[in-house]
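re: ur question from earlier - yeah i can do the single chain one, its not a big deal. heres the input i used so u can compare w yours
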Amino acid sequence: MPQTLKELGDHVAAALPQQVLETEILHDQLIVRVKREAIVPVLTFLRDDPRCLFALLSELCGVDYPDRPERFDVVYNLLSLKLNQRIRVKVRTDEANAVPSVTAVYSAAGWFEREAWDLFGIYFSDHPDLRRLLTDYGFEGHPLRKDFPLTGYVEVRYDEDQKRVVYEPVRLKQEFRSFDFVSPWEGMSHVLPGDEKAKAGEGGT
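and the output i got, formated as tokens:
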């Protein structure tokens, strides 16, 4: 399998030398990183080339690396049913630079790109209907970014007096608790209660 993936990666890199930045095999998966502006012709090639035939876009998602200048990866997972092979294509971008929409290549990308826009704030140029998909109307921010607060910015509840849903600033009912080392949510970096007795009695009476 690794040899087959290497041959496929070499074929793609040789056919698209100006668009492909690098190829690698990681966990038995061929990963091809391409230039952002070249994503449409690259995916078109991967769909139509006889040695590729990746006719199915099985997934498109965003990944956030906030410490990088181009903090987002857009990941395209493609499947060739005819040749029984998979490939992963990645491009990098940030909040200011749009990624060309690939809805003209794979119609399934429409909702995937809307999800990436909604949850990460990744903008896709030439998308026919780029609007939020999973969050509510007027939602502030993009909840899968690493710097998005866990509490969010607003809370939603149904107001019985007003007979409607109301939006209010988040009001925490209690302070965030500071768990001690016994808590199962914290890392056990020191001796648990009682363990010091077991260690003291080792090899003894």
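The longest strand covers residues 56-64. not sure if urs matches, ping me
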